[in-house]
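Notes from the pairing session

We agreed to fold both candidates in a single pass and log them together. This is the raw record for the first candidate, unedited. Please don't reformat it; downstream parsing expects exactly this layout.

Candidate A
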Amino acid sequence: CLAIELFWDHAEVLEALGLSRQAISGGNERRLRAFLETWFREPLTPAAWHRGAGVDLSFFDPDVIYEDTVLPDHADEAYRGPEGVMRPAERWLDPWEWLVVDLERIEGVRDRLVSIHRARSKARQTGIEFESALAYVWTFRDGKVVHFKSFMDPAQALEAAGLSE
């Protein structure tokens, strides 16, 4: 006798198998968490960025592609290679006196993860402070990031990764 059970989402499947998302994503989640904690350990400033604060480029595959949907003048642009990834990051810092990005959680399984953040910043010209949500969908191959994409709305990032809440 063959029994077939249908599930509506990833969480139900994992629960039925007695697994957690963290157990499945394992090494990639640990690598992503370590990378994000290093990058956002302290407030980023344009001066710190120019001094070399920041990013371990070995985290990225040499052919990594970053799609920016957050910055209005970068919307739907794709950046290639680790050095290409750094260009929009530097421009992202330009208007701010400081920027803090706190990791709230990581969702996903295996090679497809979503990091959800709270971004806080202070505008250099006006002194006005801002707070907003921010999320990234990360795709890994052989332990390296081959693609990632930014989202202002975490729900859109989860949906893009097939992990709708």
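Candidate B (folded immediately after A)
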Amino acid sequence: MSGLWPMKIAAHRGNMRVMKRSRRLSSSSLLGVFGVGLALLVGVAVVSAAVCTAWRLRQTALLTTQSEPFEQHGLARAHGGGKLLVIGDSTAVGTGASSPQASVAGLIGRNHPGLEVVNRAADGARFADMARQLQGAGLAEFDVILVMGGGNDVIRLTSHAHLVRDMQQTLQAASRLAPVVLVMPMGNVGNAPFFWAPWTWLMTRRSRELHALVRTEAAQTGALYVNVFAERASDPFAQAPERFQAADGLHPSDAGYALWYAELNRQAGLDARLKGLR
């Protein structure tokens, strides 16, 4: 009997080692399954984001081909109510609006039929292009110049030094052509549904820096800065994108442009200034 005890003990120890190995294999298998599942989820998310981004890019291209800057001439000359020059990027063109009349320039023209509206804005323009848009306006003098843009400088990562130079050139040139210059940069680009994290964080930071720079340069040139930047929690474009964003998730909709027009009036008294030109 005494000889059986060592054998029983050895067998027991062998069984324990087998059980431990089985538990380790089971744990490893579970971790492997979890890892594969996580990788699949990440892969699905990446593919979904890529598909969504491609769709939005097609929507942006479509909206760009459909957009047309609003201008007003004949009726304005008959009424004789002053001259407005609009320069900038696609937001000044009105890309995303259902018609040119629903853009900011169109809303201004509708409420001021005696105002001549000249629009030199172009899709994709940066501040460097806006300075050239002013040159394209010739030697004509205007009562008010509205500058709308900066989003392309944010998205296309224009360097700080170049942005300062281009902005100074644009605002200084505008101040020589009109006694009143309004500058309204695009809002918080990082809140646009077009972008995904972590790109959204970079776009928000650069948008914040853009507005700080515009505020400084506008003060130095005598231009009026109109602020439509907001953090996500208080940004209507982020809280109700289906209302304020166009189909591409980047440009404003009719309601978005109407909101910006309201801010032009609230912060800079645009309508009152234009009525004073009659």
